[in-house]
Amino acid sequence: MNNRAIFYSDGSFSCDFNGAKDFLCHTGLSLDSNKKDAQVGPIYADFKFVKKYFSKIDYSYVGAYGWTKNPLVEFYIIDSWIGSDLKDWISSRRVGNIDIHGSTYTVYENVRNGTSINGPAVFKQYFSVRTSSRDCGSIDITAHFQQWEKFGLPIGNLHEVKIFSEISSSNRDAIIKDTKNK
Questions:
Q1: How far apart are CA 64 and CA 130, in angstroms?
Q2: Which domain CATH number covers 161?
Q3: Which residues, at least 6 apart from 62, have a Cβ–Cβ distance to it below 8 Å?
Q4: Is 149 a catalytic residue?
Q5: Is residue 171 very low, low, confident or very high in pLDDT (cuts 50, 70, 90)?
Q6: What is the domain range of residue 71?
């Protein structure tokens, strides 16, 4: 098994995956949970997803991820995916569609009982899933927060906002090269 993440001074990172059932890389902002998104200012994440040596992939997701407190919410903005049907992974209530800078996303809400940033808890999850996968671009995270609020999905105080890549291979022989810039 050979998995690694390399973090660069310009905010980008590279992930190599080979031989693990599930591997997650992420980098971004860790906040002190006392400010709303409007107090932090506009939050964007630029990414470029470079795939090499893909074989026998169960799934791969790339996008933005994070947590809020008051209310406790785990959120995902998924811009790129490979493999399994996202609806199976999300298993959530479909809230509706939003348009962010000409791209359409489907919004889902889920209630989960599991491990959170506060330990074991019941918490909500919000998902924005781009209707067509892409390998590079800019994610306007603040715009997603604003659209979720319009659906009655409150955003609490920001705890963390990160760009992430997750991959799984049941056969454990996949390799991924993943680069993102923030």
A1: 12
A2: 2.60.120.180
A3: 47, 49, 78, 79, 80, 81, 163, 164, 165, 178, 180
A4: no
A5: very low
A6: 4-178
Of 74, 109, 149, 160, which one is the catalytic site residue? Answer: 74
Peptide bond into 154 cis (omega under 30): no
For the chain, the farthest-separated pair of C-alpha atoms sits apart, in whole angstroms, at 45
**Confidence at residue 82, expressed as pLDDT on a 0 to 100 scale:** 79
pLDDT at 160: 95
What's the order of all strands across the beta sheet hosting 119-130?
22-30, 157-168, 59-69, 73-83, 119-130, 103-116, 93-100
Residues 6+ apart with CB under 8 A from 166: 22, 23, 24, 25, 59, 60, 61
Task: Give how many domains the chain has, as a whole number.
Answer: 1
Catalytic residue among 109, 149, 160, 166: 166
